UniProtKB/TrEMBL annotation:
Name used for this protein in its record: Uncharacterized protein
Source domain of life: Bacteria
Length: 138
């Protein structure tokens, strides 16, 4: 998934703002970590992004809560803090077979707080809380 780096704090692990599909999202900057062969993006550069999440420990993330939380079938991230969100998405297959299914939240494709595999779930709408959304170079 291509993203454009809008801004970044001086220190890795701080906040970064990226744009995906016309949507700006504030995330934890993990761009300098990992084993990607991509160069570290400069502000304004487009790069291949991958997301990870720290999920909200205070909210149950069982199957029913995730699959019944989006009756309006929305695809968006609702900010609840600096890099925390209420995620509303539609399940899509990840580009990497190891990704399993991801929530298309109107731009970013976000991992789920529960294990969801299988083609029969593609197209289902879900909702869940993200305590920290992080971006990495894919």
């Amino acid at each position: 998934m291509n993203a454009r780096l809008i801004s970044v704090e001086d220190d890795e692990g701080g906040a970064a703002v990226i744009e995906i599909g016309g949507i700006e999202v504030t995330v934890m900057d993990c761009l300098g970590y990992g084993t990607s062969n991509q160069p570290y993006p400069k502000v304004g550069a487009v790069f291949e992004a991958r997301f990870t999440c720290l999920f909200d420990d205070g909210t149950p993330t069982d199957w029913l809560a995730v699959f019944s939380g989006n009756p309006q079938q929305q695809q968006r991230l609702e900010p609840t803090g600096i890099w925390s969100y209420r995620a509303y998405g539609k399940l899509v297959a990840g580009s990497n077979p190891d990704d399993g299914l991801l929530a298309d939240c109107g731009g970013p494709h976000i991992p789920l707080p529960i294990d969801v595999n299988g083609g029969e779930n593609i197209g289902s709408f879900v909702a869940f809380n993200i305590m920290r959304l992080s971006v990495w170079r894919a």
